[in-house]
Automatic annotation (TrEMBL):
Protein name per the record: Ras modification protein ERF4
Quaternary structure note: Interacts with ERF2.
Sequence ranges assigned to domain Golgin subfamily A member 7/ERF4 in this UniProt record: 14-126
Keyword Cell inner membrane: no
Pfam families assigned to the protein according to its UniProt record, in alphabetical order: Erf4
One GO cellular component term: palmitoyltransferase complex
Family: Belongs to the ERF4 family.
Keyword annotations from UniProtKB, A to Z: Endoplasmic reticulum, Membrane
InterPro entries given in the database record: Golgin_A_7/ERF4, Ras_palmitoyltransferase
Membrane topology, from the record: Peripheral membrane protein
Amino acid sequence: MAGGGGPQSPTNKVFVQRDYTEGTAVRFQNKFPQELERYVERHVFENTINTLNNFYRQAEKINSSSFCEGCLACISAYLLYLCVETHYEKYVKQAASFIDHQNETIYVPRGLYITDPLERGLRVIEITLLDARP
């Protein structure tokens, strides 16, 4: 009866909120949560958040490629999106892959699990503490 793709029976959660200081673009605060001090180093956490912010910035970036993609989609009555992955989807998938890799190599071995922000509507990054360390 378990839902989602993450580990079950969490003991605690930490949420990293969106950063709206530079507008409404998808960006998360890289302020290190005190609750994670016993689990992961500050620079490792900040690198993860900064890399995710970079993926989302690239996803929302408007360039000639994304402009042409939008024009072709409009001309084809948006049937283009049935055949082609969008510029945005490419970067969101890269971010999800990065999170999976970070979980496998860094966070799960240290008792943490990062949930893909897309699963939370890009509102927060949820970090689950898998085991309560004293």
